[in-house]
Please model this.
Amino acid sequence: MYWTRTLIPTTRETPAEAEIPSHQLMIRAGLIRQVSAGVYDWLPLGWRSMQKICAIIRQEMNAIGAEEIHMPALLPAQLWKRTRRYFDYGPLLFRLADRKEAEMILGPTHEECVTELVQAYVRSHKQLPLTLYQIQSKFRDEARPRNGLLRVREFFMKDAYSFHTSLESLHETYQAMYGAYVRIFQRCGVPAIPVEAQSGPIGGDASHEFICPCDSGEDVIVRSEDGSYAANLEQAGRADGGGRTLADAPAAPPGELHKIHTPGATSIEPVCRLLHVQPRQMIKTLVFTVNAGESRQWIVACVRGDHEVNEAKLRKVVGNMEMAEDRTAREAGFVIGFVGPHVVNRVQARLVIDPDALMVPVAVTGANEADWHVTNFNWKNNLLAARCGDAVVADIRNVTPEDRAPNGAKLTFHKGIELGHVFKLGTKYSDALGATYLDEKQQSRSMIMGCYGIGPGRIMVAALETRSDSDGIRWPMGIAPFHVVITPIKYEGRSKDIADRLHIELQERGVDVLVDDRDQRPGVKFKDADLIGIPLRIVIGEKSLSGGQVELKRREEKQAILVALENLADTVTNLIRTNV
RNA sequence: CGGGGCGUAGCUCAGCUUGGCUAGAGCGCUUGGUUCGGGACCAAGAGGUCGCAGGUUCAAAUCCUGUCGCCCCGACCA
Model:
């Protein structure tokens, strides 16, 4: 391809709205252009890279026996109502109506669609296992799209779905996927750490995320120092998270519950400042609700003042709850901002106590009265004596750097970008949509499913975030828009002839070549070549040409080497083959 | 959804506080010339509904109201 025949709108200046490096570079190098919040055009360079990423994904999917299909992005709402996700997915779901007022959605994921497809044609255990995948646009009406391609409303996703007659078969495919994912990220040249993620209905090791460690990431992963344990923050367990019961509450020291005026201090920090206590001496009390149809159950969750409630862990204890709405909670008698555990003496609620909160012998906590807290709170004195029955002790908080991994090792925290997710689904969708098969004994059974997603756009973001330098992008060879950029100092005369010839010669060897045929000063061409980050650059200039040579420079190295023209094609193809 | 910020040339921004005559700069673009190995220089040009609507005023980019869009922090979400 010739530079003047394509569209590579590089810019010297960084657009104001781009904050993270990958976003700035994608715009400056002319990879993408924003159309609206979280919606982007893919320009030629960006699209070339995207297609290479997708090609790698396809090869690895096909290699483990997954078969590509394509499903629509536009889906009938009806299908999603059958699994209730139409209601459960919330405002993240794009909803629209067609001209007949029929409700439609834009798919944020395709479990319903693929399960419905499979139930239509697969009836026998002889047809299973089966793995189908697609690479396709997904739509999510994100509350706040941000950070360029990191969080967007329309994006590509590779989503694969597998169907099985047994957990063993599911596990086999899961392992194959896991292996394929490792190879995909490796071939794309981005680091990706598999971490334990929330496991859903099957439990155990049923879910892994692949995270690229990077400061711009929105996820937090926790690793043990010895590298043997890695999980996302939501999932991360700790060495002493379980085992305690109410009976372990520290004995009651002497002293009465003491009310103290704390006007306007509705959170831990101001209370600590006002009363000169440490967060770890406080008990943080949060109110959640479980809405089961018409009935509503209140959940009061207590963690130590310096800890955070982990909603996923709490959900495992109490079922599908959510943070209580401020107004309704107040109406029910919770003085939001000043709630203490003993509120359960007044309002019917289920109490869940984190072990560390339980072990605070004398605590400061809310007085259940606006602008008041209490000191000298003790579980045995002030609560358990009366209401031991409904309370449970459970690990419901995020781990902190002070915690130890389940295996006892020290923990480290990293931010990262989620690139992919493998997940054992179970029978949630096959049950809801009737995806059943007949087994050898003519028994009808629900298929067991797994699902496996990758965000190709995020792979690109991760590559740019982790490899760029102050001059611009440094594409990994495997996903670079072009392998080589040929930069004639002057695109005329002998230099032009050689550039054109090399272009053909390299292309015939399957090399992707860009010739900078612009009538520009060399400095401009060099700066642009660095910015768009093509891994190899061939400079054709009088200096070396007189000796029958051209300069070959790798983007990540400062120095160019001189290569004789007749050896160039071999040298280039070798470099491409040996570089990822 | 809560908080903050911004919409002026293709891009980055000034002008707005204190209303005033023809709305500016740099980059980019066009033409001509001189240059030519790390974002050249000279000259001449093209390019603007000042986001949109309404209001105040003799007069609005500037003040007021509404609205749309975009960005950031948080909440939500995987």
User: Anything to note?
Assistant: Chain A has three domains: 56-238+412-463, 246-393, 482-578.
